[in-house]
């Protein structure tokens, strides 16, 4: 049996072969020692006029190869392969298990992988016969693989078969099967060999199959798996898996706002001395300045409301407030945020800053404690029976200012 289409090297079917170089024994198997593998040794004509291309196939196209002859040896198993390195390695594109070849003439379908490299290649048909000596047959032809397009299939014979296909990148397809040529393995007589790795395109025509006997070794420098030297033009990276990187969300922390003290009482009007006060205690205000911190911003770390201290009922006793707001040590470049008792804050004051002044109830003459602005220079006042009390009033002298109103204390 021999391949008719595509026309092999030095074949009588090849119009490029010189009549004097025609191999009339093209139907013979390869040598038992594998010395004429691959292609019966005829791949040496590549690059010469006799090695010119005899067929053109397109990526993804469906075609068939034709085998003719009468000594079909009960059929067997065949493979169609492509080589891009002159026949040193082959990549399987179709495996047919059983009923290949057939008596007389037979056309066997194959599809060029859509990611097969475009360019010149060697197409090979290999056959392992069912009946007779354990032999290997191989014919090779020069072909060209073009990028894309399809050609109508030549379907002269319909092959009854079970067809299983899956997409596999060309670079991941197996090498062609080699046996019966002194490489350590052989096929079982009267059986259709089941290829150890037939590839993704397999046509199963037989239930009389057998595995290979022995361990197959590469011959002639051919590896056990084939990877083409040419780079696919259409899908060179189709098997690459993409890396999805999931970005962790960034949590934005809202700035912490100093809560409004719950015990701070906002004075709405100028406090008048209560007539129901049981003692002649004087109203006092402390203008003692809190030492400014090294930072231009004073941020209370806890409640900035100073609790008023006890004031005795004696008119001559004065108790100064003992608590001051703790300045923050964290440096800041923002304007001063010292809370002001005024209802209208300056342009740099935080809207949620608490008021640092408060008044006690009228039943007990407690002192009023207010933290002065860092820029205040008002001196501290002392108390006496007839001393003047300094009462702070807001909202009169403008935003961020205090109006000092002095009234002489009325003694009983």
UniProtKB/TrEMBL annotation:
Highest taxon in the source lineage: Eukaryota
Region of interest called Disordered, as start-end residue ranges on this chain: 222-399
Low complexity: bias regions: 222-390
Gene3D superfamilies: 2.70.50.70
Stated name of the protein: Chitin-binding type-4 domain-containing protein
Organism annotation: Vanrija humicola (Yeast)
């Amino acid at each position: 049996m021999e391949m008719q289409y595509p026309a092999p090297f030095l074949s009588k079917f090849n119009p490029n072969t010189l009549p004097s170089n025609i191999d009339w024994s093209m139907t013979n198997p390869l040598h038992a020692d594998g010395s004429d593998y691959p292609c019966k040794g005829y791949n040496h004509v590549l690059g010469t006029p006799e090695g010119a291309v005899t067929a053109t196939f397109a990526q993804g196209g469906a075609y068939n190869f034709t085998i003719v002859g009468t000594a079909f040896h009960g059929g067997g198993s065949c493979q169609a392969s492509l080589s891009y390195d002159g026949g040193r390695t082959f990549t399987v594109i179709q495996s047919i298990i059983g009923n290949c070849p057939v008596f007389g003439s037979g056309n066997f379908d194959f599809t060029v992988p859509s990611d097969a490299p475009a360019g010149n290649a060697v197409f090979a048909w290999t056959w392992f016969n069912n009946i007779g000596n354990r032999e290997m047959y191989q014919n090779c032809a020069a072909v060209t693989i073009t990028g894309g397009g399809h050609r109508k299939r030549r379907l002269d014979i319909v092959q009854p078969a079970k067809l299983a296909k899956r997409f596999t990148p060309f670079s991941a397809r197996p090498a062609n099967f080699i046996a019966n040529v002194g490489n350590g393995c052989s096929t079982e007589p009267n059986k259709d060999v089941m290829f150890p790795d037939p590839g993704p395109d397999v046509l199963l025509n037989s239930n009389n199959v057998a595995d290979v006997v022995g361990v197959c070794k590469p011959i002639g420098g051919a590896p056990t798996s084939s990877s083409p030297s040419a780079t696919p033009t259409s899908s060179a990276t189709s098997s690459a898996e993409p890396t999805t990187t999931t970005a962790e969300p960034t949590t934005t922390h809202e700035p912490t706002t100093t809560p409004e003290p719950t015990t701070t009482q906002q004075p709405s009007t100028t406090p008048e001395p209560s007539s129901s006060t049981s003692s002649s205690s004087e109203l006092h205000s402390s203008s003692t300045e809190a030492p400014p911190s090294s930072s231009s911003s004073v941020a209370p770390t806890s409640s900035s409301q100073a609790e008023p201290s006890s004031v005795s009922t004696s008119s001559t006793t004065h108790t100064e407030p003992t608590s001051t707001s703790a300045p923050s040590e964290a440096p800041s470049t923002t304007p001063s945020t010292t809370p002001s008792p005024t209802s209208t804050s300056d342009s740099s004051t935080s809207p949620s800053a608490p008021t640092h002044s408060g008044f006690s109830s009228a039943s007990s003459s407690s002192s009023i404690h207010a933290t002065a602005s860092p820029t205040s220079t008002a001196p501290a006042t002392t108390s006496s029976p007839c001393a003047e009390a300094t009462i702070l009033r807001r909202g009169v002298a403008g935003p961020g200012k205090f109006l000092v109103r002095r009234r002489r204390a009325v003694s009983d």
